[in-house]
Amino acid sequence: MKAAVFEQTGKLSVQDKPIPSLSLGDILIKVDLCGVCASDLAALNGDVTDYSPPVVMGHELAGVVADSRHSDVKVGERVTVNPMLSCGSCEYCHADLDKYCENIEGIGHDIDGGYADYMRMPKHGIDTGKLISVPQSISAEDLLFLEPLGCCLNAMRETIFDKSVAILGAGPIGLLFAQLTKNNGLQTFMLEPIDHRRGAAEKMGVEAAIDITEECIAALIETTNGGVDTVISATTNNQRAIDLAFKVARRGGCINFFGLAPAGQEIRVNLEHFHYTGHKLMASWAFSRWSLNESRRLLLEKELDFTLLLTDRYPIEQAVEAFKNARNRRGVKSVLTGA
C-alpha cells in the first residue's frame, strides 16, 4: 500500500509499505479520506514536538472496517477514531481528560495513522472506546470532520461567552467555530485576510467577514462599542495574531488561543495593564470523549454543513503537494484519499 511518512523535521515522503498485519483483537481500517491537519503541518515545520517519527501521519480519518479480529467489530462498519490512545485507568482517563494521561499514544503521531490505504487499530484502542462507529448514512466527507469538530466543541464548553465573538482565521477550524457560535445565538465576526476564505464565511451567514487591515479592525471595534466579548484564535498564534486578539477584545473579554503557535512563541503582558483590562486568557486543545460523542450526535442530526470546508482532494501519492496546498491556504480543507 501507499503511505505518507513523516520521516523527520522538514521531510515527508510517500512510501510503499506492507498492509498492516493484525493480532488478536485488532482491526484493519480501509481509509477513504484523511484530512490534512494544522498540527501535522506544524510537526513537519518543527514547531511541535508530540510526534515520534518515522510515523505515518493522519488522524482525521473516515474509513470502513476491512478486517476484524475483534469480537465487537464487524467488517463493513463505517468508522473513525479517537486518535488519543490512553491507558484508560488513570485519574485523568477516569475524569475524561485522556489528553493528560502519561501513557498517550497518538494515532498519526506515535503509531501509524490514516495517510495510507489501510490503518491498523490496536485492540487496546478498541477496548478503551477509541473506535467510533457511525451509520452508513454518514458520508466519509462528513465523518472526517468528527474529530476536529470534537476539538471545537471542547473549546466551546471551556470558553467564556456573552453576546459577541470574533474568530481569527476562516480555515476549517474557524469555519466550524463560526457555525457553532452562530447556532448558539452569538453575534459572530470572522477575521480573515484571504478573500476566498472570507467568502466561505459569508456564505455561512456570519455577521461580517472582515479583512485584517487597520481600517477594517477599527470599524469592528467601533461597531461593537469597544470590542467583542470573546475572541477565539483559530489560526497560527504568531505575534500578529496575538496582537490582533488583544486589540479586538473588549475590557473584561475572554481570549482563547486555540491555534498552535510557532516554536518559541511567547505571550508577554504588562501585568499592571492586564490587571486593569481584566482579560480572561486561556488555551483549549484536543477533545474529550464527551465532545467526540457530541460531535457524532451533531453529524447524525445534520446540524452542521461541511460542504464549504472540503475543497481539495489528493491521492496519497500526492501527499507532499497536499501539504503545500494546505500550507499555502489555497482552498479550505485538503484531504488525502485512499486507494
Characteristics:
18 strands, Quinone Oxidoreductase, Chain A, domain 1, 7-stranded mixed sheet, Rossmann fold, 339 residues, 12 helices, 6-stranded parallel sheet
Task: Please characterize this protein's 3D structure.
This protein is of the alpha/beta class and 339 residues long. The protein has two domains: 199 residues, Medium-chain alcohol dehydrogenases, catalytic domain (Quinone Oxidoreductase, Chain A, domain 1); 123 residues, Rossmann fold, CATH 3.40.50. Helices cover 30% and strands 27% of the residues. It contains twelve helices and 18 strands. Strands 3, 5, 6, 9, 10, 17 and 18 form a seven-stranded mixed beta sheet that branches. Strands 13-12-11-14-15-16 form a six-stranded parallel beta sheet, with helices on both faces. Helix 7 links the parallel strand 12 and strand 13. Helix 5 packs across helix 6 and helix 5 crosses helix 11. It is globular. The N and C termini lie close together (8 Å). The mean pLDDT is 97.
